[in-house]
Amino acid sequence: MAGHPRPLSPHLQIYRRQLTSVTSILHRLTGIGLAVGLLYLVCWLVAAASGLESFDRLQSFNGSIIGRLLLLGWSVAFFYHMLNGLRHLAWDAGWGFELPAAYKTGTAVFIGTAVLTLLAWVIGYYQMGAF
């Protein structure tokens, strides 16, 4: 057994990422991100119930660059998880298991996430009078 040492199973060095595996991993990560964001939402509600000073302090953080980036990330996670969840519901109904359909719907999830996130932020800023 003095030959070339090989891994016993596919390893990250030789495994090519596929769209289906990337969407699956991102679905799990966005679910975790949404859970963390939900905890932040609870903090926001507690600050609102605690009084004007607490609420203003949290709102000023939300208006900062870091706060807006966190809110943007949470909205991206929301739309991605929602669209990919709809894709999973279609799979539960038995539709879209074929590889071409899986790649089309995976690409549609990414495009839909970008469009819905952009649309939500444009509408939000429009409602605030920024445009």
UniProtKB/TrEMBL annotation:
Keywords: Heme, Iron, Membrane, Metal-binding, Transmembrane, Transmembrane helix. Its main location: membrane. The chain crosses the membrane at residues 25-49, 61-83, 103-126. Pfam families: Sdh_cyt (PF01127). It is found in: Membrane. It is a multi-pass membrane protein. Its cofactor is heme. Part of an enzyme complex containing four subunits: a flavoprotein, an iron-sulfur protein, plus two membrane-anchoring proteins, SdhC and SdhD. The complex can form homotrimers. PANTHER family: SUCCINATE DEHYDROGENASE CYTOCHROME B560 SUBUNIT, SUCCINATE DEHYDROGENASE CYTOCHROME B560 SUBUNIT, MITOCHONDRIAL. Belongs to the cytochrome b560 family. Membrane-anchoring subunit of succinate dehydrogenase (SDH). This is Succinate dehydrogenase cytochrome b556 subunit. It comes from Dongia sedimenti.
